[in-house]
Amino acid sequence: MLRNIRGNSAEVLRVRDSHVEKIPVTLGLRGMVASEIVAGLAAGDLVLNADAAEGARVRVQQNVPGTIGED
Prior knowledge:
Strands 1, 2, 3, 4 and 5 form a five-stranded antiparallel sheet that branches. The chain has strands at residues 3-6, 9-16, 19-30, 35-39, 46-47. A hairpin with a 2-residue loop joins β1 (3-6) and β2 (9-16). It contains no helices and five strands. It has a domain at 3-47. By secondary structure, it is mainly β.
């Protein structure tokens, strides 16, 4: 979920070591349903698709039905 969108800049909530951190990202192509992030995240980064306070502790649940990569 993108937050604080300003032009081609925004913020996302990334989960690292079971804690939420707010990080700046650079946007590429943007549409009604999806946006491309061209800088600020690395392959394998976990992005929170909900609202949470920065520093909050979260538990990552793997293989949630209905998500990408479902078997």
